[in-house]
Design goal:
The complex is a heterodimer of chains A (about 70) and B (about 250). By secondary structure, chain A is α+β, with helices and mostly antiparallel strands. Chain A has a single domain, classed as Alpha-Beta Plaits (2-Layer Sandwich), CATH 3.30.70. In chain A, the strands form two sheets. In chain A, strands 1-4 form a two-stranded antiparallel ribbon. Chain A starts with a strand and ends with a strand. Helix content of chain B is about 40%, strand content about 15%. In chain B, helix 2 links the parallel strand 2 and strand 3. Chain B is α/β, with parallel strands linked by helices and about 250 residues long. The mean pLDDT of chain B is about 100. Chain B has ten helices and eight strands. Chain B has a seven-stranded mixed β-sheet, with helices on both faces. The chains are: A alpha+beta (about 70), B alpha/beta (about 250). Chains A and B meet through helix 1, helix 2 and strand 4 of A and strand 1, helix 1, helix 8 and helix 10 of B. Strand 4 of chain A pairs antiparallel with strand 1 of chain B. The structure holds thiamine diphosphate and iron/sulfur cluster (3 copies). One iron/sulfur cluster binds next to helix 9 of chain B.
């Protein structure tokens, strides 16, 4: 099963990954990182199809994907 | 388990700070670095960085780079290309204020000479770094700190379309406008960048890639609102298309 890893320290909570995921795998979380951003979190890993769209659009290169 | 997407070696290790949240400078600089890595050019590429938020790229890029005075990147890149070892890939990374305003002479003449360099032009229709003044590319009606009622044609003229302007010249070999507002757009943008670098390796001449971008901070929008604005307004004024591929 694919695995999405988000760098919680460098994520800036821009939501671009959330809005471009075709399977609603991601969401903004409720805890903030040291820079004050409510970093993105994986909420539905089972639905992930490893399409990489979230990682391609992430402006901060904060997403890595395993399959 | 196999890693199928990792942060490119063309970028420095992850850090906090840098571009504002959701700024497409982030997507574009990352895509440039990815393409250079994919083409195995990281150890022979030099980026001449303009002035503006593009300067922040020096904190991201992990390959050779230098800064040019405002607008002069195509002139600096020309000198560098002529003086550097033959296999050096030289490209500029410039904003619209930098390239289309203060640097209009340098870009026109580098293009007209058909210099064998690649231009990465990031158009966010504003002066981002200095706080959102009107740029040559600001849309009609779009507000800026220097046009609080919006760009007005009678007073400020029309937005400048640099691909179309350069497409009047004889020498350029590749001119394309792309947009990074979606993952599909980013993948297309990477193809155009790859073509731009390949033309240089093949000694073909001047390649120009305009990448439509946003400035959530100075547009006064969230990143998602700025994407919606781009689709509704910016991409209607600036048509995404290939103008030339020789
Ligand atoms: C010779 C000179 N004039 C003016 C400036 C001030 N200045 C810094 S950045 C900038 C505009 C940058 O706008 P743009 O190229 O659109 O880049 P962005 O920040 O939007 O990415 C200006 C006018 C300067 N640094 N040097
Ligand atoms: S890889 Fe595709 S499906 Fe999985 S989280 Fe990213 S965008 Fe969603
Ligand atoms: S796209 Fe990147 S920076 Fe933006 S919310 Fe997602 S992981 Fe964070
Ligand atoms: S000021 Fe605008 S262009 Fe500059 S980093 Fe912030 S959002 Fe991007």
């Amino acid at each position: 099963m694919p695995k999405v890893e988000i760098n919680s320290v460098t994520c800036k909570a821009c939501e671009l990954c959330v809005s471009n995921c075709p399977k609603d795998v991601l969401a903004l979380g409720s805890t903030s990182n040291p820079s004050g951003y409510h970093f993105a979190v994986v909420v539905n890993q089972d639905a992930c199809i490893a399409c990489k769209m979230c990682a391609v659009i992430c402006p901060d290169g904060a997403i890595e994907i395993y399959k | 388990m196999e890693k199928i997407y990792s942060r490119t070696k063309g970028l420095q290790a992850p850090f906090t700070g840098g571009f504002c949240p959701g700024c497409f400078h982030g997507v574009i600089s990352k895509s440039v670095a990815e393409v250079l890595e994919e083409m195995d050019l990281l150890d022979r590429a030099v980026c001449v960085i303009g002035v503006g938020c593009c300067c922040i790229c020096s904190r991201y890029f992990d390959f050779d780079k230098m800064n040019a005075p405002h607008g002069r990147a195509p002139a600096v890149a020309t000198g560098l290309k002529h003086g550097a070892p033959k296999d050096t890939v030289v490209f500029t990374y410039q904003g619209d204020g930098d390239l289309a305003s203060i640097g209009i002479a340098e870009i026109m003449y580098a293009a007209n000479r058909g210099e064998n360099i690649t231009i990465v032009f990031v158009n966010n229709s504003t002066y981002g770094m200095t706080g959102g003044q009107m740029a040559p590319t600001t849309l009609i009606g779009q507000k800026a700190t220097t046009s609080p009622y919006g760009r007005n044609v009678a007073e400020h003229g029309y937005p400048m379309h640099m691909c179309e302007v350069l497409n009047q010249l004889g020498a350029p070999v590749f001119i394309e406008r792309v947009s990074c507002d979606s993952p599909a757009g980013v993948l297309k943008a990477k193809k155009a960048l790859q073509k731009g670098f390949q033309n240089q390796l093949d000694g073909k001449g001047f390649s120009f890639i305009e990448l439509m971008s946003s400035c959530p901070t100075n547009w006064g929008m969230t990143p998602l609102e700025s994407v919606a604005f781009m689709r509704e307004h910016t991409l209607k004024e600036f048509e995404v298309k290939n103008f030339r591929d020789r």
